[in-house]
Amino acid sequence: MASTLEGTSAPSACRRVLLFLLLLLCFLIDIPYNNIFCVEAAASNEDDAVEHVCRSHVDYNFCRAALGSDPGSRNADLNALGFISLRLVKENVTDTTLFIREELSRERDEGKKRALSQCLGAYRQAADDAEDARRALSNKNYQTMSIEALAVGGAAEGCDRAVGGFAGGGDPIRVMNRDLDRLSEIAWVIAVNLR
Ligand SMILES: *[C@@H]1O[C@H](CO)[C@@H](O)[C@H](O)[C@H]1NC(C)=O
């Protein structure tokens, strides 16, 4: 079990629980998020929000490439970047859902089919969470946005656990799970910064 679940899934589950508890703590005692998350506070004259966000991301290069894929990110403020990040999340969820559905239709092994069905469920949940995060951002409810962004990452992780028994770390679905996890983390960093 342990060897097939290698990669990011266990530590990142742990990290997510910690983040969630920290969020709750912040909420209860009402201190600025960036103090305890070591997310650098935005300088008032910040002219490159992408740089600012990606410096707080676990994978700087991934973050820059993802946000940079949208030309609108160049002069975007944090709020606009929030919408861009959630659009990227949604597109990823849609593409990956199609991929999983395709795999499922070809799969003959019952165990794998069950795992892929679990993934479809997880990605359906991720689509809802991403939409909730977008709505929260529109309503300037950054607390909810951050929680929904974490939930998207949780869904990717759920799928990763489901397929981890038979798919190696380089398997396309697992790469897609990792991409979604990292994309959702961009939205999370932005939510924390906006608060
Ligand atoms: C998900 O997003 C990442 C980063 O933008 C991208 O590299 C990857 O191709 C996307 N995957 C899918 C399945 O859309």
From TrEMBL:
Pfam families in UniProt: PMEI
SMART domains reported in the protein's UniProt record: PMEI
Domain Pectinesterase inhibitor: start-end pairs: 45-190
Gene Ontology molecular function, alphabetical: pectinesterase inhibitor activity
Keyword Isomerase in record: no
Signal peptide coordinates: 1-33
Gene3D superfamilies associated with the record: Invertase/pectin methylesterase inhibitor family protein
InterPro entries per the UniProt record, alphabetical: Invertase/methylesterase_inhib, Pectinesterase_inhib_dom, PMEI_plant
Keyword terms: Disulfide bond, Signal
Similarity comment: family membership: Belongs to the PMEI family.
Record-given protein name: Pectinesterase inhibitor domain-containing protein
Species this protein is from: Aristolochia fimbriata (White veined hardy Dutchman's pipe vine)
